[in-house]
Design goal:
Distance between the termini: 44 Å
Number of helices: 6
Shape: elongated
Oligomer: single chain
Structural class: alpha+beta
Order of helices and strands: HHHEHEEHEEEH
Largest sheet: 4 strands, antiparallel
CATH class of the largest domain: Alpha Beta
Radius of gyration: 22 Å
Strand content: 15-25%
CATH architecture of the largest domain: 2-Layer Sandwich
CATH topology of the largest domain: Alpha-Beta Plaits
């Protein structure tokens, strides 16, 4: 597995926030040249970390429809076919598969019933149970965090978890395993700065 560092993480976070962000702007944020940023992005693509650059379109602004969350419980040997069939439907915006084999889809129905719409993409006889919930709101905010990225705490060196924190010091992004380490790091830097003057 390729080695990634804090700069790679920061580049990913900037691209997740705006995939159209110019490399020159990213370079200013991370302290590299634009060609160096381009090389790092290419390495992230080659490693499969970045699968594609895409748009997050709010279809409710374009067409009328009813937003629903559909939960399907397919036969275990048909999970991949159900997932692929749902992806192929224009009405379906997101598809998730849980560890238990439940397939969940977010869809915008423009007309017809849920069953009729689903039947255009999947074999409903392979689905043991089907639940549909109306959605009042949706929010899609993908994020890249330091936890699980192989980044260590700048204070104690521990691997980061879901409770990690990030902060900038002298323009450089630092990651911490929690608020206590972030505070100790900041206090220590402040103390060193006072002793230097």
């Amino acid at each position: 597995m390729p080695e990634f560092d804090e700069i790679d993480l920061e580049i990913l976070q900037l691209l997740v926030a705006d995939a159209r962000r110019p490399y020159s702007e990213i370079a200013d944020h991370v302290g590299l040249s634009p060609p160096a940023v381009s090389d790092r992005v290419e390495r992230l693509v080659d490693a499969g970390v970045i699968k594609r650059f895409t748009l997050d379109v709010d279809s409710s602004k374009l067409v009328d429809g009813v937003r629903v969350l559909v939960e399907l419980h397919p036969d275990p040997d048909t999970i991949d076919a159900v997932r692929s069939g749902l992806h192929a439907l224009d009405e379906v915006e997101h598809v998730f598969v849980t560890a238990e084999g439940t397939v969940v889809a977010h869809a915008v129905l423009r007309s017809g019933s849920v069953r009729a719409t689903l039947a255009d993409g999947i074999d409903l006889s392979a689905v043991r149970e089907l639940d549909v919930d109306l959605l009042s709101e949706t929010d899609w905010t993908p994020e890249v965090s330091a936890s699980g990225f192989g980044v260590e705490c700048a204070e104690c060196g521990s691997a980061l978890t879901g409770a990690s924190r990030s902060a900038r010091y002298d323009g450089e992004l630092r990651h911490f395993c929690g608020e206590d380490c972030r505070q100790r790091y900041g206090d220590r830097r402040e103390q060193v700065g006072e002793e230097a003057t």
